[in-house]
UniProtKB/TrEMBL annotation:
PANTHER family given in the database record: 50S RIBOSOMAL PROTEIN L32, LARGE RIBOSOMAL SUBUNIT PROTEIN BL32
Transmembrane keyword on record: no
Pfam families noted in UniProt: Ribosomal_L32p
Keywords: Ribonucleoprotein, Ribosomal protein
Protein name according to UniProt: Large ribosomal subunit protein bL32
Family affiliation: Belongs to the bacterial ribosomal protein bL32 family.
Region (Disordered): 1-24
The keyword Ribonucleoprotein appears for this protein: yes
GO molecular function: structural constituent of ribosome
UniProt superkingdom: Bacteria
Any one GO CC term of the record: large ribosomal subunit
Organism of derivation: Pirellula staleyi (strain ATCC 27377 / DSM 6068 / ICPB 4128) (Pirella staleyi)
Length: 61
């Protein structure tokens, strides 16, 4: 069974983990209502996505 011969130093372990930090969500602005929305998500305000209305809002109905 493969077992490490030496212990990894703290520096080496932390260098490896440097990319594990959380990154902020990428927000885009809805072209219809200008609300900040995460990318590739239907706008919760107007229901607009990819150039068309996906969900009818209660205001227009």
């Amino acid at each position: 069974m493969a077992v490490p011969k030496r212990r990894h130093s703290n520096s080496r372990s932390r260098k490896r983990r440097s990319h594990d930090a959380k990154k902020p969500r990428q927000l885009a602005f809805c072209p219809k209502c200008s609300t900040a929305v995460p990318q590739h998500v239907i706008c919760p305000n107007c229901g607009y996505y990819m150039g068309r209305v996906m969900v009818e809002s209660e205001e227009t109905a």
